[in-house]
Design brief:
- The chain has 15 helices and no strands.
- By secondary structure, it is mainly alpha-helical.
- It has one domain.
- Helix 7 packs antiparallel against helix 9 and helix 13 crosses helix 15.
């Protein structure tokens, strides 16, 4: 990696903006999914928004891998680490756990408070609560408080397996990508062995299990290294992503024409995710060259920086307050929908700001705690 660009340590704003766009898509999808008045427009946006939401989650895992390998490549280039084989992975993992868990626990606390004030708490046992606190995968258990907590569980798994990925691949980027393809396809095949209505099928396919996002993670790890070296995506990345997308689109279209019921997450996520990320990259890089009002891209950047926090806390707001709001607004159904969107957006913004402030205070308290050497 002797030809790496020393200026590559600069912040990649398109990464934050892509995450911001992804979390916006997820928030909108969950709004229409939980909106109690099932208008025709709401059902259309819910049904099609599901695909958008799934694609947005895929983008998060590609970005997670990208940020990891990009940072590691930067450390290697600066001489802070000599090689990945000699890297202290335990220290690397500990830093990420310290960053993940306090925010997660704070989200649990505020979610429980929200339920306590406005409705009933759905925890069925102490065991369930303990499993939720430690972030252990459990499809139904996580739904008792917040279905969004599955995201924490899978991100946790992603960080836990990252050292294993580097070990198996011997830190070779191409082997990381191949490993991602093999494990990703194996996970999809395993899903097909179970009946689609079974809990095991949905566990493997979508929630609480890294298998369906392993390819996206490895793709991000692969691209993080190559992007650091070239400071852009290569022509081979673009051509391959477009080709794979065309194949997926052809298969997808055939199923639609034949009226065959299909699920996006059964494999099309693997075919579409690479190009989706590249499209986001092109959009934000293109827009960055124009003198747009500062808030235009800044909003996406801010949402991207706090996307983890937004993901963890936004859904309970829909469960608890959205039905109440809709019942209180006695207008034309579509005007009521518009007012509900505006009101919920304002409440969610205030909720996120308050959460971030509390998180900051919690972080400062943790920094003041005495550190004992091990």
């Amino acid at each position: 990696m002797s030809n790496l660009n020393p200026t590559s340590k600069k912040r990649l704003h398109w990464v934050d903006q892509t995450k911001g766009l992804a979390i916006l898509g997820i928030v909108l999808f969950h709004f229409f999914q939980n909106y109690p008045d099932r208008l025709g427009l709401v059902q259309i946006l819910d049904r099609n928004g599901a695909r958008l939401g799934y694609a947005a989650v895929d983008i998060f895992f590609v970005i997670a891998g990208f940020n990891t390998s990009y940072t590691l490549a930067s450390l290697l280039h600066s001489g802070k680490i000599r090689s990945f084989l000699e890297m202290n992975w335990w220290q690397w993992l500990k830093k990420r756990l310290i960053r993940l868990y306090p925010t997660y626990w704070l989200a649990i606390g505020l979610t429980l408070l929200l339920y306590y004030l406005f409705t009933k708490i759905g925890i069925k046992s102490i065991v369930d609560f303990v499993l939720i606190v430690i972030g252990w995968p459990g499809y139904q258990r996580f739904k008792t408080i917040n279905p969004g907590f599955w995201f924490f569980s899978v991100i946790l798994q992603a960080y836990l397996v990252t050292p294993l990925i580097f070990s198996i691949s011997q830190s070779k980027r191409l082997l990381i990508l191949i490993l991602g393809i093999v494990v990703g396809l194996t996970s999809k095949i395993a899903c097909l062995l179970f009946i689609q209505d079974s809990s095991i099928f949905w566990f493997l396919l979508q929630n609480n299990f890294l298998g369906s996002y392993f390819f996206q993670l490895c793709l991000g790890l692969y691209w993080g290294f190559t992007y650091f070296e070239h400071q852009s995506f290569r022509k081979v990345d673009i051509v391959t992503s477009i080709s794979v997308f065309i194949v997926g689109l052809a298969i997808y279209s055939f199923f639609i024409i034949q009226k065959i019921n299909i699920l996006y997450m059964i494999g099309f996520d693997i075919l579409f995710s690479p190009l989706f990320l590249l499209i986001c990259y092109w959009i934000f890089e293109f827009l960055s060259h124009y003198k747009l009002p500062i808030y235009t891209l800044g909003i996406f950047s801010i949402m991207g920086v706090y996307s983890y926090q937004i993901y963890l806390i936004h859904q309970p707001l829909y469960f608890v307050l959205l039905p109440y709001l809709v019942n209180q607004i006695d207008f034309n159904p579509y005007l009521r929908l518009l007012l509900s969107i505006m009101t919920t957006t304002s409440l969610l913004t205030l909720y996120v700001i308050a959460f971030i402030k509390l998180e900051s205070c919690l972080g400062k308290l943790m920094e003041k705690m005495p550190k004992h050497s091990v």
